[in-house]
Amino acid sequence: MTLLKNKPFQISLVVLLFLLIPLQLFAAEAGGGHEPMDLTASSIGFISLFIFMMAYFFVMAEEFTHLRKSKPVILAAGIIWGMIGWVYMDHGMSELAEHAVRHNFLEYSELMLFLLVAMTYINGMEERRVFDALRSWLIRKGFSFRQLFWLTGILAFFISPVADNLTTALLMCAVVLAVGGTNTRFVSIACINIVVAANAGGAFSPFGDITTLMVWQKGMVDFWGFFALFIPSVVNFVVPAAIMHFAIPNENPAASDEVVTMKRGAKRIIALFLMTIVTAVSFHNFLGLPPVIGMLTGLSYLQFLGYYLKKTKHRCIAHEQRYRDEQSDEENIGEFVAFDVFKPVAKAEWDTLFFFYGVVLCVGGLGFLGYLSMASELMYNQWGATNANIAVGVLSAIVDNIPVMFAVLTMNPDMSTGQWLLVTMTAGVGGSLLSIGSAAGVALMGQARGQYTFFGHLKWAPAIALGYAASIGTHMWINSSLF
Q1: What is the pTM of this model?
Q2: Torsions phi, psi of 185, nearest 5?
Q3: CB neighbours (10 Å) of residue 270?
C-alpha cells in the first residue's frame, strides 16, 4: 500500500502496466467460484512485466535489428503463460488458468481471421492489377506528390467511417506504394497521414472502428451521438497533415502514358469486398454476431468467384489469343488468367498476424496477474474522468485500442455522455501517436516494410500530438453541453 501512495510509482504503473490491459476479464465465471490470484507484487508479476517490455523493445528496434516483430512477442507470451500455469498448477487451480488463456486465444482467433480475410481481398485486388491501374490513372492525371498526399488522406478519412480503419489504411497504402515507388520520403509521410486519417475518420462513426462499435453496443452512446465527434476528428486529421504537407517533395511522379488493364474479375472482387464489409457490419449490428463471422462469410464470396473464373476461363481462350496478337506489351498478357484464392491467402502478412497473437496473449497474461484493478484505482478514482480519458488515448499508442477500450467498458466508470465520447475519440485517435498504437499502423509497417517504420513515424509524433490535443480541446468546446 505504501507504493500506491507514491506518485512517481503510480505514473510508472499506469505507463508500464495499464497499457497491458487484458482483452477479457472473467474472474467470477471460471474455476468453480475461485478468483484469479493477485500476483502484481510477486516475482512472477515483475518478471512477466520485464519480459514483455524487453519483447516490445525488440519490436521497436526491428528497423535496426531486422528481427521480425512477431518473434519476441510470441516467445514472451509463451514464457508469461508458462509461469502463470506453473503457479496455478502449484495452487491446484490449473483449470482457472486454462480457462483464462482459452478466452484470450479466442479473442486472438477472431482478430486474426478478420485480418486474414481483409488481407486476402487486398492481395487479390493487387494480383488482379487493381492498384496498378489506379496508379497509372493517377499518374496520367498529373497529380503531384502533395496532391496525392491530401487525396489519399481525405479518402482514408471518409472511407474509414463506413469500412474500418485497418482495411481503409491497407487500401490507401497500396495506392501510395504504387504511385510513390522508390520515393521513400513520400511513402513514409503519406503512410503516416493515412494512419492518422483512418483512425480519425473511424472515431465519429459507430461502424468506423471496433472500439466505437463496443461503446455503441454497450449503450454508452446512442447511434447519432457519435457524429458529435465529426469536427474534432477533422481537426485531429488536418492539424498534423497541414504540418507534414511541407515535408512532401514538391514534385510529380515520373511521367508516364502507361495504361494498365485490370485482369478479368477485378471489378467483381472490388464489389465483393464491399459486400464483405457490409456483411461483417450487418452480422455484428443486426444479428449480434461477431464481425469475423461476416468476414469469413465474405471470404466464401471470393472463393466462389475464383471457382467461376476457373470454370469459365476456356470461354476466353480465343479472346486471349487475339489479345496476344494485338498487344506487344508483354506485361498486359494474361488478362484472363484464372484466379486462385489461396495464393492471396499465402501472401498475407503472416508476421503481422503472429505479432497480434503475441501481443494478445502477453496482454491477457499480464492482465490475469491482476494489474487492471490497480490501474482503475489510480486513474478513474484518483485522477478524475477527464485526465483518465486523455491518458487512455496516450496508452492506446503503446497497445492497440481494443483491449484498452474493453478495459474501460469493464471498469464502467460513472461518466457523462461527453466523457464517453471523449474516451471513444482518444482511444481511437491516440493510437496514431505511434505506429504500433493501432491495427492500421502495424499492418502498414508490414505492407510498406522498410519505407514506413516505427522511427519514421516517431519523428512526426509531436505534430500528431498537437492534433491530438487540438481535437480534445475542440470536443470539450463545441460539445460542452454533453459534459
Answers
A1: 0.70
A2: -60, -45
A3: 17
